[in-house]
Amino acid sequence: MINDRVGLPPRDAYKALLNGKFTPNHTRQVSFGFTSNEVWIALSIRVPTLPLSPTGFNANGDVTLPGVARVLKIDNAWLDTIDIFFFASGELVRKASIGDTQTIGNRIYNSRMPALEHHFPPGITEVLIRVVSADPMTIPVYIGTPAQMEKQALVNAYFYGALYGALIILFVYNVMLFFYLKERRYILYSLYLLAFLLFNFTYTGHGYWWVWGNVPYVQQWLMPALMFCYISAGVTFTISYLDAKVYLPRLYALRSSIYAGLSVLAAIMLVYGSQAFAVMAQLVILTTLSIWMLLIGFFAYKNGNVLAKFFVPAIALGTGGATISSLATWGVIPYSQWAFRGIEIGILCEMSLLSISLGFNFKQVQEAKVSAETSARIDPLTNLYNRRAFTQLVHPLWELGKRNQQSMAVLLIDLDWFKQINDDFGHHVGDKVLEMVAQRIKARVRSSDLLFRWGGEEFLVFLSNADINEALSLAETLRREVAQMIVLKSVKVTMSLGVASSLASNITLEGLIKQADEALYMAKNGGRNCVVAAPMPPTPKH
């Protein structure tokens, strides 16, 4: 029965029940939407009359009383005022008040949800429940033995433990990715996760039960406040995640107006001061937001955003779960605990898929970084290491050679008359010459040697653990190989080589390269197409 005024005396409600003014709930309706009226629910509990134990005591030695003990629970943490009246034999035998206007310390039953235990005597007990709330009137009523309620509470604890554990892991994971990558979308996603976590922690009653149970006002206003934070975090994350600046420039240009609109809405709710208005307005916005996120995700995908292919199904899962919860809450589909939890299951799927997408983005970033680092060290024409890579690759080998008293060698190579080849045959032929020379040299050097394109037509070979004789032998082999090479059937190529070798402990790496360069200069002045060795440096006296 829905009463159009608040404050109907319980005896008048009892008379209304006896006079048939309560409507039988054949459809198991548990939701009555938003209403300022009070909702009355009647339960008729029949307990058969059973003979007492002959001794008056049970197996545990406790005194046996006629009747049964049952726990009555309202499985909704956000209802403000719940008054319960027990009538037996036409008399009001008990009155109890539960709901989130009561502090946890004053609750008569230790439970996250409003509940109480009552001993029902033999016969019929009429239970009248009066509910008044500014929040949606969803009133699922459960009655069972204390053991049954404890078992149900344990199942709920496992569910929410798994849910919160998963969300916290996703939160920490993405915060760590933010600090590693310094990419804004990761911290915005973390805030989006945190906002939902806190919002859910509040409307499921966990926060009131564990944290602020002595401040009912906080519980009543924190839910709409955190819902607003969740909506704002969702909008901000979506614009960043979909890279709206690139893929949705018109939306990106309106972002300031969107944020301003949310701020104005928050101010209106604060000034208006109505908890019911705040909750109702934000439920409408939350529904609109879900549709908006789906639409802009679709348009971002059409505009070429790869991550949108994760975003659209993720939001669809979250929206689908929220829709199931809403339909169950409003009584459109049969109410069940799993239907009511649809939003939590949907959001967990959404958050998991979005985390996978951000992991995919992280992989792309890392691959791009490795590719960029590789490209920065590789000459694109010859596919050899460039001069920039020299220090990174050679320095560790040089230091190892110094410790092990090894001889190191450098071959500095210059193609003869290369400018004339470019002038006579064109730069495309010159490029082909460089490619073929690089391939010939690479095919002859050892796997432990390092080959670099040192300049325009210059190459450098670094030989670790090689003396002057080994270096000269390789240099002469390379010279002959290239001299026999003919490019494009008509272009002959020769090259001059300067060779230097020394114990790594006797000279610096720069000094060895300088010696090879001086030897190359001598080879160029000595007629080209030859190998010249630099003089061995004197062994330092100890």
Automatic annotation (TrEMBL):
A single MF term (Gene Ontology): diguanylate cyclase activity
Gene Ontology terms: biological process: cell adhesion involved in single-species biofilm formation; negative regulation of bacterial-type flagellum-dependent cell motility
Catalytically driven reaction(s): 2 GTP = 3',3'-c-di-GMP + 2 diphosphate
EC numbers for this chain: 2.7.7.65
Domain GGDEF stretches: 406-536
TM region(s), chain numbering: 157-179, 186-209, 221-242, 254-273, 279-301, 310-333, 339-360
PANTHER family assigned: DIGUANYLATE CYCLASE DGCM-RELATED (PTHR45138:SF9), REGULATORY COMPONENTS OF SENSORY TRANSDUCTION SYSTEM (PTHR45138)
Entry keywords, A to Z: Membrane, Transmembrane, Transmembrane helix
InterPro entries: 7TMR_DISM_rcpt_extracell_dom1, 7TMR_DISM_rcpt_extracell_dom2, Diguanylate_Cyclase, GGDEF_dom, Nucleotide_cyclase, Rev_trsase/Diguanyl_cyclase
Cofactor entry: Mg(2+)
The protein, known as: diguanylate cyclase
An annotated GO cellular component: plasma membrane
Stored CDD domains: GGDEF (cd01949)
